[in-house]
Amino acid sequence: MAVKHPLNIVKMKKMKQEGNALSMVTAYDYPTAQLAEEAGVDMILVGDSLGNVVLGYDSTLPVTIEDMVYHTRSVVRGAGNTFVVADMPFMTYHGSIDETLRNVRKLMQEGHAHAVKMEGGREICSAVETITGAGVPVLGHIGLTPQSVNQIGGYRIQGKDEKDAQRLLEDAKALEQAGAFGIVLELVTEQVAEYITSQLSIPTIGIGAGRGVDGQVLVFHDIFQYASPYRNKKFVKNFGDAGTLIREGFVQYVKEVKERSFPDESHVFTAEDQVVENLYGRGREKVNNA
Ligand SMILES: Nc1nc(=O)c2c([nH]1)NC[C@@H]1CN(c3ccc(C(=O)N[C@@H](CCC(=O)O)C(=O)O)cc3)CN21
Ligand SMILES: CC(C)C(=O)C(=O)O
Ligand SMILES: [Mg+2]
């Protein structure tokens, strides 16, 4: 697949140096990807949050590599000129390095992603080194890592105490060292996220991590209030209300079908008069002959 996206990981680093913010949003399908690209977003994330917002699971854990390939392909078809990152799903990068590489290969060769994202700190750094060594850009993801929700015991803010802040900093540095081109900081206190950002040469992309990071990422369904359980969380800002728009539209559609006000004259196709006459004429004859 030809590389047509205007942004690459070298330019992203330059954007950090020059203080230009990176905008990233999730998309899971062709039409959403098209709209995001038209709007000029820098990067699209095909997040495993698709488990929550598209597939109806209550966490990201059931999402499979096949789900990710399927959705990533459709996103790349819609946004052929945008840098697309695909999430590595739960348990697809913690076994043997062979298995990890097989899953990365699927996202790149079958999903047509330009990069992969992986949750975790120092414990995934040897995999990050191998993957980047194979020519695949890796986006790190620390702070709240939703794939570990059963260990964390909930979707909690990270980096609240000094020990936790130190842990996040060391993880961030290790990921940079391992070759990650950037790091997502999720639900991290603003000051800790800002400090980590200042200690790295690669960009940080925040979600609920405040104003001191190099870029922002949010979930499509959250920012447009599109049937997402997390649309009203503190870290989210709504940029439109697709939920209300679509719900009210559905109600109106049902109403008009029931009361037969849709379709009206403007939606129908009309046959030639002669055709209608003959049709109804013959119909009458048949009835008479019977
Ligand atoms: N639609 C969607 N948006 C997301 O941002 C998102 C997903 N799905 N799925 C995976 C994770 C889960 N995320 C979540 C889920 C819940 C909270 C939450 O309840 N946060 C509390 C703060 C909790 C605390 O005080 O420690 C909040 O009120 O914001 C945060 C992030 C972020 N990710
Ligand atoms: C919330 C973002 C960072 C993510 O990982 C996802 O959408 O799956
Ligand atoms: Mg994710």
From TrEMBL:
The keyword Cell membrane does not apply. Gene3D superfamilies: Phosphoenolpyruvate-binding domains. It catalyses: (6R)-5,10-methylene-5,6,7,8-tetrahydrofolate + 3-methyl-2-oxobutanoate + H2O = 2-dehydropantoate + (6S)-5,6,7,8-tetrahydrofolate. CDD domains: KPHMT-like. Coiled coil: none annotated. GO terms for biological process: methylation; pantothenate biosynthetic process. The active site is at E186. PANTHER family: 3-METHYL-2-OXOBUTANOATE HYDROXYMETHYLTRANSFERASE. Belongs to the PanB family. Homodecamer; pentamer of dimers. This is 3-methyl-2-oxobutanoate hydroxymethyltransferase.
